[in-house]
Specification:
This is Molybdopterin molybdenumtransferase. By secondary structure, the chain is α+β, with helices and mostly antiparallel strands. The protein is built from ten helices and 19 strands. It has three domains: 54 residues, Molybdopterin biosynthesis moea protein, domain 2, CATH 3.90.105; 103 residues, Pyrimidine nucleoside phosphorylase-like, C-terminal domain (Aldehyde Oxidoreductase, domain 3, Alpha-Beta Complex), CATH 3.90.1170; 153 residues, Molybdenum Cofactor Biosythetic Enzyme, Chain A (3-Layer(aba) Sandwich). The longest helix is centred in the middle third of the chain and has 13 residues. The protein is elongated, with a radius of gyration of 28 Å.
Length: 346
């Protein structure tokens, strides 16, 4: 890039947009970056106060911002994504399918630590739909060293920084516990809420079984559904710490690996997550806290998308939900466009 007098700019390529502002009429670029200046352009450029211009001067050690932006975008993208039109060294990363957004946070941090380039994204581990903007990228200066972009490739380990995991159609069952429901003393109001939640994803509903408060009966119901091909078992009722709440013990009694009983999330502290292994596959068994029945958003909304995308949930990730794990019960719920569930993995 070099600075030249406008009257000598004919034939040169602009390195920047030239903005024209006419009160009450227009405000915007009269010439775009990349425009080749013609003789007719000179009076216009002078009229907007451009006595000098910055024009592209090819240097084998430097990259134009748009060339560098392509490299940065390639480090971000993976299957199921597309890019916007390049503009001023900027490319947006756009979802080209529905799924769960995963972010390699270490790579993202490493690239953003290099300076002169940036990637800003939405939060990972949440669903995205086709057409959603995932991230915005930009090269900061008009030109950047090739070596700097090589360092970006190394920082991102070749990418990708972002992935979209597709949701899988899962055979799903509900086991509802509690003598009061089993004997018909009260109507089950938990099952319909859970059915509504899972209906947002591709599922095949195997059924709902009502069970009394005996641990052995709960365990049998869970294992029955797994034998029937269930790929996700959701248990409602009996999840607190009262002596007659037997669901946690029943889940553990199936032989499943319990990841956690309890999560630093409100609503949703009494969550239990376990994985039952069968034929080399891990089948999630989830003990749902009672708040799922009445609260608009809970820990279930944070965990369910990951289970539907076969994205293993770890104890450390659940523990990290403590920061951001408090739902503020806003008058108008804007989830997921809020802070709920935006934990930080340390």
């Amino acid at each position: 890039m070099k600075k030249i007098e406008t009257i000598h700019a004919v034939g040169h390529v602009l390195c920047h947009d030239v903005t024209q502002i006419i009160k009450d009429k227009t405000k915007g670029p009269v010439f775009r970056k990349g425009h080749i200046v013609t003789e007719e352009d000179i009076p216009v450029l002078l009229s907007v106060g451009k006595d000098h211009l910055y024009v592209w001067e090819k240097n084998e050690n430097m990259l134009h911002e748009n060339e560098a932006a392509e490299i940065l975008f390639d480090l971000c993208r993976s299957e199921g994504m597309k890019g916007s039109e390049i503009k001023e060294g900027k490319i947006e990363v756009i979802a080209d399918r529905d799924g769960l957004l995963k972010i390699d946070r270490k790579k993202l941090f490493a690239v953003n630590s290099l300076s002169e380039m940036m990637i800003a994204s939405r939060h990972g581990d949440f669903p995205v739909k086709k057409g959603d903007k995932i991230a915005g990228t930009r090269i900061i200066p008009l030109v950047i060293e090739k070596e700097k972009m090589e360092r970006a490739k190394e920082a991102a380990e070749g990418g990708p920084i972002f992935r979209i995991l597709p949701f899988h159609k899962k055979k799903t069952a509900i086991v509802t516990t509690g003598n009061e429901v089993f004997y018909g003393r009260i109507k089950d109001t938990f099952g319909p809420v859970v059915k509504e939640k899972i209906a947002e994803y591709p599922t095949e509903f195997l059924g709902q079984t009502l069970v009394d408060d005996q641990k052995e009966h709960i365990q049998e119901a869970i294992l029955h559904y797994i034998d029937e091909g269930a790929e996700l078992v959701l248990c409602t009722g009996g999840m607190s710490v009262d002596p007659d709440d037997c669901t946690p013990g029943a889940i553990a009694g199936t032989g499943a690996q319990v990841i956690t009983y309890g999560a630093p999330v409100l609503p949703g502290a009494m969550l239990l997550l376990a994985y039952y292994e069968k034929d080399g596959k891990k089948i999630p068994i989830v003990g749902l806290p009672g708040c799922v029945m009445y609260a608009k958003r809970t820990v279930f909304d944070l965990v369910l998308p990951r289970l539907m995308a076969d994205d293993p949930v770890t104890f450390e990730e659940l523990a990290a939900l403590g920061e951001g794990g408090l739902c503020l019960n806003c008058g108008v719920c804007t989830f997921p466009n809020c802070g709920f569930g935006k934990g930080v993995v340390y």
